[in-house]
Amino acid sequence: MYSIERANEYIQANKHHVTATYQPKLHFIPEIGWMNDPNGFVYYKGEYHLFYQYNPYDSKWDTMHWGHAKSKDLAHWEYLPIALAPDQDYDKNGCFSGSALVVDDTLWLMYTGHIVNEDGSISQVQNMAYSTDGITFHKIKENPVITGQQLPNEISRSDFRDPKLFEKDGKYYAVVATQHLDQVGCVVLIESENLLDWSFKSIFLKGEQNQGIVWECPDYFEIDGQSYLIVSPMQYHSEYLDFNNQNSNIIMQGRVDWQVGKFYPSNLKEIDHGHDFYAAQTTKNADNERVMIAWMHTWGRPLITDQLQHGWFGSMSLPRILTVQENQIIQKLPESLDNQFVKVELNEELKQPSKIEIDIKETIELKLGTKEDYISFGYDAFRKEVYIDRKNLKYQLIGEERNPVLYRGVQIQATHLTAYIDQQSIEIFVNDGQEVLTSVFYIEGPKKVYSQR
Ligand code: FRU
């Protein structure tokens, strides 16, 4: 029923019916339909390739395909044909999230086949596909390459997804999301010598009781020889300003014992403190830099462009380069993207993607939007808190969280903010990227950033 050809034809025939009102200019969005997680983010033959969880047929989540696009500068994207469609028994209810790895000019993908069995139970298995031209992908005959049956009994078979491939000391690995039967999130490590035969290696890291029930979309990487693990926990318990979104996105620094395949975290934090940042994935570019991109939404929130029948939903965050300074992760836009934002001052109408720089000496409260429809953001010098508050938006974005998450903040001594504003989003970088807050909004009419007073 589903195929790459059918999806491509549908997109070409219908993409002109999409309403552009809230479409950003410098954030990646789908041509038509629904998009969630970034997948297979990779640098291949001089270009960034981005795949994404995609339902071309509606602006709501449904049977997942992998959309595909590429970019030279991370600012302008070219759409490519659909990479994967759910057309096999082993992925019949969706090609779920996964990742890419380049080996000798071949672009390999590993993704989750989502299967709803006849009795209604769910199986999730891992599959591989490859391409030598970066456009056409071939699913391999060995699929599925690993199933839940190969996991230890203490791990759920229905939550086994989102493999992130990497190579380490001549061996291939993937970290994969699972749920431990203790009802906590858990990342497992699988290994392979040849990318075709995979086996379970170890429980890489098991979460604690308050740290969420499934750790989706893991990513393992190293910067300056130091190990990092990203996960997207469902239902991480809220702690004052942190983890307030129903689905959070965290980064852990740690140490790995590769003999036993275990990650020992030494610290943990939310990657982004705004309302909309999930399923972050990284890749390495030609300059050996770690670049991260995330879904600029999170689950359980109203889908405004779907409700308005605009024919699309979902945007990616701005890609960010991760570096480490004084043992802290710093996020920074690549220059090729930063250059595209026009510098504006307070009270200036925002006509295109804009960047505003704010030096902080005392408490400051700013509004972004129109007089009646705006978000507030700023710095509370007494509490040492940078925040974004969505309570004054016309299109309220209250989600499934027990307490409505209108206000999000982060404790930090702030001296400088840089805010990147596109048609429907703001990304606030604090002190040149020590912390970031990312949130979306849907505001009609000409927008400005203006002061409270
Ligand atoms: C995360 C996620 C993944 C899954 C995909 C399905 O947002 O739930 O765990 O593979 O989305 O679209």
Automatic annotation (TrEMBL):
The keyword Cell cycle does not apply. The keyword Transcription regulation does not apply. Pathway: Glycan biosynthesis; sucrose metabolism. Signal peptide: none annotated. It is found in: Cytoplasm. Keywords: Carbohydrate metabolism, Cytoplasm, Glycosidase, Hydrolase. It comes from the Bacteria. One of its GO terms (biological process) is sucrose metabolic process. Pfam families: Glyco_hydro_32C (PF08244), Glyco_hydro_32N (PF00251). It is an enzyme of class 3 (hydrolase). CDD domains: GH32_FFase (cd08996). GO terms for molecular function: beta-fructofuranosidase activity. One of its GO terms (cellular component) is cytoplasm. InterPro entries: ConA-like_dom_sf (IPR013320), GH32_Enzymes (IPR051214), Glyco_hydro_32 (IPR001362), Glyco_hydro_32_AS (IPR018053), Glyco_hydro_32_C (IPR013189), Glyco_hydro_32_N (IPR013148), Glyco_hydro_beta-prop_sf (IPR023296), Suc6P_hydrolase (IPR006232). It catalyses: Hydrolysis of terminal non-reducing beta-D-fructofuranoside residues in beta-D-fructofuranosides. Its EC number is 3.2.1.26. SMART domains: Glyco_32. Residues 338-442 form the Glycosyl hydrolase family 32 C-terminal domain. Residues 27-332 form the Glycosyl hydrolase family 32 N-terminal domain. PANTHER family: BETA-FRUCTOSIDASE. Enables the bacterium to metabolize sucrose as a sole carbon source. Belongs to the glycosyl hydrolase 32 family. This is Sucrose-6-phosphate hydrolase. It comes from Enterococcus cecorum DSM 20682 = ATCC 43198.
